[in-house]
Task: structure prediction
Amino acid sequence: MLGLAAMILCAGLWLFHKIASAPAATLDRGVTLVKEVGQQASTVAKGFQRQTVREEFLSSSIKLTGFTRLQVATLDEHETFRRKESNSLAWGLISLPAIVVQADVPVEYGYYLDLNGTWDFAQADGSVTAYPPPIQPSTPAADVSRLTFYTLEGHVWQDDKAVRERLQGTLTPALRARATEHIPLVREIARRQVQLFVEKWLADTFSDGHQFQVKVLFPEERPPQATTETPAPAAKPTP
Result:
């Protein structure tokens, strides 16, 4: 043990003698190297702790189209669609249980009138009856992020994935059909919007336009004799 302690002491004295006798420039370089190594280690440590998030939103303009439409109503609905498929084996002799799949999705329907369509007006006493073009649905906007599928009937050994895919493939035409079916739900609010639009147009176009009461009748409500009434005014409303 004394011999080992003597060897360690001699090694320490030798190292101290070498450092003490080394030139100052060498010592400076050693200190600088230690500092650089310390800074790099600190940078690396920060790099491991740093989080960088990058989001990119890319778009490509394909076509820009202008519309001459008067937006008159918006309807928010939660739509449900179901598809039922029944299969059989052995040329129809063995019936398999039916598979029923359901899809739920929130949809926003928009409705408009074509300003370039046929607008007729009839004046009688102190009122003006407006006959605008028919209400038309815009392309339904389905919230696909909240689209959910459910299997209501079926068995674990039956493949319901294909049935879901076929149901999803029919959603677009089904939503367009629903948009047309919902027109009666928005007719009255659309009537009110057209009334306000025509009242403003009359007041801005004619000096006595604000004195007339406006009534709005859509094409399906227009009586046959309305075409023989005296039209006034003849101009078409502009947005």
